[in-house]
Automatic annotation (TrEMBL):
The lineage of its organism: Bacteria, Pseudomonadati, Pseudomonadota, Gammaproteobacteria, Pasteurellales. It is a multi-pass membrane protein. This is ATP F0F1 synthase subunit I. InterPro entries: ATP_synth_I (IPR005598). It comes from Testudinibacter aquarius. One of its GO terms (cellular component) is plasma membrane.
Amino acid sequence: MSAVLDRNRKLYHKAFIIELALILIVYALIGLLQPAFSFPFLLGALIGWLPQLVLVVYVFYLRANLQSEHKLKALYQGEGIKIVLTIILLLLVFINIDLTPLAFFAGYFGLILLNNLLPFVLQKHTESKINSLTK
């Protein structure tokens, strides 16, 4: 179980670095092409990124030493924290900031999609590298 958690921890660490780099690159490109859309995009992307980061830190770092029968409970608690944090951040943005909804939701849903696909793609890439080395 520990080896699986270590592998997933490294996978998510790499995924978050790539996601942050992509956020900043796309933010810079949008800033050059359509400056009015860059800040809403950044806010949406960060609201998609930060709660996922909190979930991974909670599950893989703060609750990593739990007994195996309590790990599922920690995962559900982390998901609850992620949902509540997402709702709070969305409310703060919608109440306090006038923004372009299209750019905001493009950043938000783009990051949600990236959060789900990037770890899978990285895992498949790593497995293919291992398979090619063992042949």
